[in-house]
Write a structure and sequence with these properties.
This protein is of the alpha+beta class and 159 residues long. The chain has one domain: Transcriptional regulator MraZ domain (Chemotaxis protein chec, 3-Layer(aba) Sandwich). The protein is 30% helix and 30% strand. The protein is built from 6 helices and 8 strands. Strands 1-7-8-4-3-5-6-2 form an 8-stranded antiparallel sheet. The radius of gyration is 17 Å and the shape is globular. The chain starts with a strand and ends with a helix.
Length: 159
């Protein structure tokens, strides 16, 4: 599924409940939950199901401190810690009327340049992958320049 949505000054979008269900979360009307979002390789935010292994690891990471020596900045473990620190807590609220879920992104998402407010965001889901893209990054990522190669890749992916 794909939805093109307006993000308001308060960093909020409203997605259909059907789109939100791709996270495999049962959310009742009026209920508010928090999920982790990571910054993907193309600058998109990927929301993680709370029961995913990575969400659970991020929860565990936030519960304690990990000793790191001053000269370990280039170590793989330190890089992993840095990436875990970059996860953002996203608030999801099921509207009491209608079938929309309001998603509120932290101010940090705007400050680090993932998107601008107000603006346009693209929400794309495939299975349990729930991605939020700025309009500009979506356009760059979705471009098809080699139709023959893309046709072959699509054929293979859809088998």
């Amino acid at each position: 599924m794909k939805e093109v949505l307006r993000v308001d000054e308060q960093r909020r979008i409203e997605v259909s409940r059907d789109t939100f269900q791709s996270l495999d979360i049962k959310i009742r009307k009026g209920q508010t939950i928090h999920v982790w979002a990571l910054i993907g390789g193309s600058g998109q935010l990927q929301l993680l199901p709370p029961n995913s292994k990575l969400s659970k690891q991020r929860d565990r990471f936030g519960e304690r401190r990990y000793p790191v020596d001053w000269d370990a900045a280039g170590d793989a473990r330190t890089s992993t810690y840095r990436q875990l620190q970059s996860f953002m807590s996203v608030t999801c609220h099921a509207r009491t009327q209608g079938t929309k879920v309001r998603i509120t992104f932290p101010a940090e998402a705007v400050r680090v340049g993932l998107f601008r407010v107000p603006g346009t965001l693209v929400v794309a889901t495939n299975g349990q992958i729930f991605e939020v893209w700025s309009n500009e990054k979506w356009e760059q990522s979705a471009k098809v320049s080699d139709l023959r190669g893309f046709t072959a890749a699509a054929e293979q992916a859809l088998q």
